[in-house]
Automatic annotation (TrEMBL):
Gene Ontology biological process terms from the UniProt entry: pentose-phosphate shunt, non-oxidative branch
Source lineage: Bacteria, Bacillati, Bacillota, Bacilli, Bacillales
MF GO annotations: ribose-5-phosphate isomerase activity
Gene3D superfamilies: 3.30.70.260, 3.40.50.1360
Protein name (record): Ribose-5-phosphate isomerase A
Gene responsible for this protein: rpiA
Length: 230
């Protein structure tokens, strides 16, 4: 990642806090862009802002604690006011590919239960069609080989994710298959086809869940609402 991309992530991440209001319960997404939101949020909390958040990954939980962001969970609140999250790809209909960091199940739960979802990203994440970024699919460890074969039958090349020479294990103790589809013309249809396969826990396709996208790039920061998309 270039310093420039890092800067765009910081700009988008910090911009998102403008939509946070006192008393809100927040969904705290995952990834390096969200890091900047959490850092900025920590500063506002120090100045008296009163919010609490549900983290969508153990990594986010660690950052939130570091920045003194009060945390809660679904035993305490069932509806969140606002979720702020990153993405790996965003299409013109605001469908997303997520899960590059391996937290897609918790991210989807947090976003699904939020009244409003804001996605923050650098400009490069905006694409004409999803699919260049291999689609992360969370699967049970048990029998992952047969699940991978069934996904391959749908036209993908699934690769079991590894980190540091070991199989990557998600926060939910599952594996991730990074599935090269190259082109995903109908994200909703593909999501449903994958969900029908035994062994698939969740897909990284987030369809019809995003209300606003904040994109930062060479031309500055752009806030795009679902109603006036590009
Ligand atoms: O879906 C995610 C993690 O599972 C992240 O939101 C996505 O990978 C974007 O990350 P980053 O902000 O680091 O580019």
């Amino acid at each position: 990642m270039t310093d420039q991309v890092d800067l765009y992530k910081k700009i988008a991440g910090e911009k998102a806090v403008e939509y946070i209001e006192d008393g809100m319960v927040l969904g705290l997404g995952s990834g390096s862009t969200v890091y900047w939101t959490l850092k900025k949020l920590g500063g506002l909390i120090e100045q008296g802002l009163n919010i609490k958040g549900i983290p969508s990954s153990l990594r986010t939980e660690g950052w939130a604690k570091y920045f003194n962001v009060p945390l809660t969970d679904f035993s305490d609140v069932q509806v969140l006011d606002l979720a702020i999250d990153g993405a790996d790809e965003i299409d013109p209909n605001f469908n997303l590919t997520k899960g590059g960091g391996g937290s897609l199940v918790r991210e989807k739960m947090v976003n699904f239960h939020a009244k409003k979802v804001i996605i923050i990203a650098d400009q490069s994440k905006m694409v004409d069609e999803l699919g260049k970024f291999p689609l992360p699919v969370e699967v049970l460890q048990f029998g992952w080989q047969v699940t991978a074969q069934k996904i391959a039958d749908l036209g993908a090349k699934p690769v079991l994710r590894e980190r540091d020479g070991c199989f990557f294990v998600s926060n939910n103790d599952n594996y991730i298959l990074d599935c090269e589809f190259n082109s995903i013309p109908d994200p909703e249809k593909l999501h449903h086809s994958l969900k029908q396969l035994l062994g698939v826990v969740e897909t990284g396709l987030f369809v019809n869940m995003t209300d606003m996208v904040i994109l930062a790039g060479a031309k500055g920061v752009k806030v795009i609402n679902k109603t006036n998309q590009i």
